[in-house]
# Entry
Amino acid sequence: MPELDDVLKQARAVGDLIAGLPAVRAYFEAARRIESDAGARQLLSDYQREAHALREREMSGRPVEVADKQRFAAMEAKVAGHDLVKAFSRAQADYVELMERVTRAMHEPLATIAEQAHESTR
# Structure
């Protein structure tokens, strides 16, 4: 039976492998470039804030006004036209997908054990 130290050692090795993937490097480089560009950083922050506010209105059942939708559409157009923000968004999506795939792969054996445990209680 593995010890926690063995698991942590393997986890660090997996982390090293992940850190070497091109998508990971591209994401952190894009994030660094966004951080070093005040205009891009502000645009991304404004967009995220507006998207969050719109989502909250929709989820709470409050009406989303035409002006809110127009303001968000204008913000989306600005984001779509900004090469640095667009590159960051693409790199972020690739990174998130990669990490979700890694997480699913790690959970597969756990799901099998959970299913077996569930079946044994029937």
Q: What stands out?
A: Helices lie at 4-19, 22-35, 38-60, 66-81, 83-120. The chain is about 90% helix and 0% strand. Residues 27 and 93 are 9 Å apart (CA to CA).
